[in-house]
Amino acid sequence: MLQTIDRPTSHRRTGLPRTGGATPRTPHTPLAPAPVRRPLPCRGTDDPDLWFAESPAALEQAKVLCGDCPVRDACLAGALDRGEPWGVWGGEIFERGVVIPRKRPRGRPRKVVAA
């Protein structure tokens, strides 16, 4: 004599809505708008060599452009950590790995005339 066992015809748990095989999605909230990023002066210039110029006037111009840069402090700290040998980094002039207040022009210094 054969014995039969009552089995459910579906593997689905009773009481749950049918999803058609796909998992139900919850409505997600929209993401907040991304913050407006200001362009960095060193990335938006036509002359990237400005930050490594030989001319003291050009280096002063680069320092002015760095004045209100949002990453100025991080740029200066990174240059100090890396030991950058020259250029304008974080609004400061580096020469031979040392921060200097201004670059002297090329050539022999002027003689100071005693009055």
From TrEMBL:
Entry's Gene Ontology BP terms: cell redox homeostasis; negative regulation of DNA-templated transcription
Localization of this protein: Cytoplasm
Post-translational modification: Upon Fe-S cluster removal intramolecular disulfide bonds are formed. The Fe-S cluster can be nitrosylated by nitric oxide (NO).
Region (Disordered): 1-47
Major localisation: cytoplasm
Record GO terms (molecular function): 4 iron, 4 sulfur cluster binding; dinitrosyl-iron complex binding; DNA binding; metal ion binding; protein-disulfide reductase [NAD(P)H] activity
Superkingdom of source: Bacteria
Cofactor, how bound (note): Binds 1 [4Fe-4S] cluster per subunit. Following nitrosylation of the [4Fe-4S] cluster binds 1 [4Fe-8(NO)] cluster per subunit.
Record-listed [4Fe-4S] cluster binding positions: C42, C66, C69, C75
Stated role: Acts as a transcriptional regulator. Probably redox-responsive. The apo- but not holo-form probably binds DNA.
UniProt family annotation: Belongs to the WhiB family.
Protein name: Transcriptional regulator WhiB
Gene label: whiB
